[in-house]
Amino acid sequence: MNEPCDLDAVEARRLIGCKRLSATELVESCIGRITSVDPAVNAMVARDFDRAHAAAVACDAATMRGDALGPLHGLPLGVKDLEDVAGLRTTYGSTLFRDHVPTRDELIVQASRHAGAIVLGKTNTPEWGAGANTRNAVYGATGNPFDPRRSAAGSSGGSAVALATGMLPLATGSDMGGSLRNPAAFCGIVGFRPTPGLVPSEKRALGWNPLSVLGPMARTVPDLCLMLSCMASDDARDPLAYTVAGGAVRRSGDFTMPGTVDLAGLRVALTPDFGVAPTERHVAEVFAEKTALFRHVFARCEEASPDCTGTDETFETLRAAAALASHHDRVRDTPDAVGPNVHADVAAGLKLSALDVARASQHQTVLYRRWLRFFDDYDIILSPAVTISPRPWSELFPASVDGAPTRTYFHWLSLAYAVSLVGHPAASLPVGLDRAGMPFGLQIIGRRGGDAQVLAVAAALERLLAEDPRTARPIPDIAALAGAPPLRDAPGFLGFG
User: Fold this and answer.
1) For residue 287, how far is the Cα from the chain centroid?
2) Quick check: is 495 in a domain?
3) 174, 407 Cβ separation under 8 angstroms
4) Considering its fold, how many domains does the chain have in total?
5) What is the pTM of this model?
6) Does the residue 230 lie in any domain?
């Protein structure tokens, strides 16, 4: 692949800055890739090509004038369809908002545009982000770029697929139970869940609740850092993005490039399941095989895990309480226009008592302190990013893993939500393919507030693993996708199956 759309974001921005590539050329290349490949995977669901072209022309004029250029100047951006873009259809994957067009950009979009990014369109998501299988009754299903019959995970599935196939160099995402990390793992790209508050959000229904965060997605760690540097800030509209004594805590530019780290000085814990996650045997074995190829580079690397007892029950309760705040009225007033996952979330919430929520909040604090003590002895935890290899998207959610029933429709995400629950930063890094020929994601978890260290470790491992075809980032077959039948013709494409 040698099209401009296949360039890493950092390299494309460098070429634009030195006038060897125009923003218009890059936008047109991305549009061409979307036109040829998206019918096979259905990732880009609302397109803004005319405005993107006009913005690219303006970017090129600014470049030729010698204006000061933003860090994302001229780079096309995909925005997850849970995030508002002024003047562009934004549905949240819900038929209730099928024709909704916001009048203002969400903070994350504002920040990206201010840095020079060009919004090319919206990327597909499950209804309200509920469930890690990207399908809904507005736009239908999104297929995995390595096998369109399989799931791209979610809820940032459209963003991950668009990145993996070269439709875009950068995309936004969000994460509660792994919605940045799961699709990154399934699609062979990089997703990062930041410490709550690092990337401000003004839309959380429960502003003080740290479970849901916004974050960047990209094909490489340096690209992801470039985007994060434009998203991170203090903003009073997000109560978690606070400022201390009037001084800035989070500054634009803090993450422009990943820092350096000596892997040989790290104490690393390996765990396939945190002692509680229903990890598929295949995934656990691939994790052991992959880490065996590089675990020797660390100062110490051993099997260990924080005590995660009670993680499932605690997350289930707090997630259900959050669902009541966001979706109770919709389920009550328009039940026929709401999908099964959201119905399940609200039903679970209605069964809770105040005591249930209080005890869950209390145990969340217990878990947080267990993790805090664990990081006295370790610098980084490595685990699989997801408990299973990608399955057909026709399966709304995995009802079982290796024959054992799952607790809920999101139980298979517990490798990710164990981390969300305690507020630690985590990245999903592609590490070759699993035995089924699908991408394998490695989860890299750092201590509370250790975002920079996680990204530095991810960048160092990315460079190391790129040297071995067994661990290098996999690339989908673009020509095969361009010739594949449209996904919309597949049985069960639209809706929930």
Assistant:
1) 20
2) no
3) no
4) 1
5) 0.97
6) yes
Paired sense of beta strands 140-141 and 143-144, if any: unpaired
Give the closest residue to 268 by CA, choosing from 304, 218, 317, 244. 304
Sign, CA dihedral 358-359-362-367, equals: negative
Q: Is 188 left (phi over 0), alpha (psi -120 to 50) or beta?
A: left
Per-residue exposure over 441-474, b if at least 16 CB sit within 10 Å of its own CB, e if not? bbbbbbbeebbbbbbbbbbbbbeebeeeeebbbb
CA distance 385 to 367: 20
Domain membership of residue 496 (yes or no) is: no
pLDDT at residue 121 above 80? yes
Q: What CATH number is associated with residue 216?
A: 3.90.1300.10
The three-class DSSP label of residue 76 is strand
Confidence band of 255 (pLDDT split at 50, 70, 90): confident
Instruction: Identify the helix (H) or strand (E) that includes residue 327.
Output: helix 311-333
- pLDDT for 1 equals 60
> Looking at the domain assignment, is residue 196 inside a domain?
yes
Instruction: Write out the residue range of the structural domain in which residue 365 sits.
Output: 4-489
234: alpha, beta or left, given left = phi > 0 and alpha = psi -120 to 50?
beta
pLDDT tens across 39-95, in order?
999 999 999 999 999 999 999 999 999 999 999 999 999 999 999 999 999 999 999
